[in-house]
Design goal:
Blueprint lengths: L16 E2 L12 H10 L11 H11 L6 E4 L1 H13 L3 E5 L5 H8 L3 E5 L8 H7 L5 E5 L11 H14 L2 E5 L20 E6 L1 H4 L7 E4 L2 H9 L8 H11 L1 H25 L7 E5 L3 H9 L3 E2 L1 E2 L8 E5 L3 H14 L6
Parallel strand pairs: 1-10, 3-4, 3-5, 5-6, 6-7
Antiparallel strand pairs: 2-8, 7-8, 9-12, 11-12
Helix pairs in contact: 1-9, 2-9, 3-4, 5-6, 10-12
């Protein structure tokens, strides 16, 4: 199994400020409750296994055809479907990235090739050099846990090579809503790209498992064939439809601005940078730092499972909460480097 953030001891849940999960600190929006109320009226019915209403909303939002959209129970389900449908003998991924790609690949017994990340940066040219025919290439953009966002030209470089040799690029955009001026990856016209999107992080609804894939119809068809029926509940479909529209867009624009202002303060205070809504920080010993902070009711993510035992990851929360973290971090860690 793959390790995740957000595990809190039962007796401490109410007190702890949880920086280990990368959720929008201003969510969930009010209109999510209304959607849940609506769903209650339909819980005596089986869910629409094709998610027709939600797929129509997503297709409208991205200007694509409905068959080019597949809805799943979170990006986790979609990663497994991609692996089951398309992994042949090998998967390519950056050295330090989201763990579920490896978990899904191991289930199939395929080879995993991790591409080096000099200075903890994804270098698209190194990925292109490694690519072989039939490879499935997982790219988390922005990358979890490093927060780096690859721009249009960097992604185009990988897509050109994937087309040339016939590999498949899977662009996991779970955190893209937190990126300022992100480019519209769905406008890249290629048969060799699957985009995965999550609604969980952007709207702070991890208890509602909902995500979607944007890909050519031939690809979504193959994934649909092996998808478990009714995996996306009535409630998840209703909530998904409520956040994908204009109200969701307005909520994101307003909260992204607030998060950006918070990021400026954090970056000035401790000299870190990210393109996403979370940071990694080299603290020497992540496990020790996590324990120290936990004594002060602060939970951060130990990045050992990402292959970074010296780093912690923490998300951007409200200004007040961020200040509590900064205060405690500076108590245990010397940012001046002296």
């Amino acid at each position: 199994t793959c390790e995740h953030g957000g595990k809190l001891e039962e007796n401490k849940k109410s007190r702890i400020i949880d920086f280990s999960v990368n959720l929008n600190p201003y969510g969930p929006p009010d209109f999510v409750s209304e959607a849940i109320q609506e769903a209650i009226e339909e819980i005596h019915l089986y869910p629409d296994t094709d998610c027709t209403e939600l797929r129509a909303e997503i297709a409208h939002k991205f200007g694509c055809e409905q068959p080019e959209v597949l809805v799943g129970a979170g990006v986790s389900e979609l990663i497994q479907l991609v692996a089951l449908a398309f992994v042949k003998s090998r998967v390519l991924m950056p050295k330090h990235t989201y763990g579920e790609y490896e978990t899904a690949t191991k289930l199939l017994g395929a080879q995993i090739k991790r591409v080096e990340m000099p200075s903890l940066r994804i270098n698209p040219e190194l990925i292109v050099q490694e690519m072989k025919t039939d490879d499935v290439v997982f790219i988390c953009n922005p990358n979890n846990p490093t927060g780096q966002y690859l721009d249009k030209n960097e992604v185009a470089l990988m897509l050109e090579e994937a087309e040339r040799i016939d590999a498949l690029v899977v662009l996991d955009e779970a955190y893209v809503d937190f990126v300022t001026d992100a480019f519209p990856a769905h406008k890249c016209s290629t048969q060799n790209l699957i985009i995965l999107r999550s609604l969980t992080k952007s709207f702070a609804i991890p208890g509602i498992r909902i995500g979607y894939a944007l890909a050519p119809e031939e690809i979504t068809k193959e994934m649909s064939k092996i998808k478990v029926p009714w995996s996306v509940s009535v409630c998840a479909q209703k909530v998904g439809a409520s956040v994908i529209g204009t109200a969701g867009g307005a909520f994101l624009a307003e909260t992204r601005e607030r998060i950006e202002r918070s990021k400026e303060k954090i970056e000035i205070a401790i000299g870190v940078h990210t393109d996403a809504n979370f940071y990694i920080l080299d603290v020497g010993n992540a496990g020790e730092m996590k324990k120290k902070l936990l004594k002060h009711d602060i939970q951060v993510r130990d990045c050992t499972s990402f292959g970074l035992p010296t780093h912690i990851r923490f998300s951007v929360r409200t200004d007040e909460e961020n200040e509590v973290l900064m205060r405690n971090l500076t108590r245990f860690y010397n940012f001046s480097g002296e």
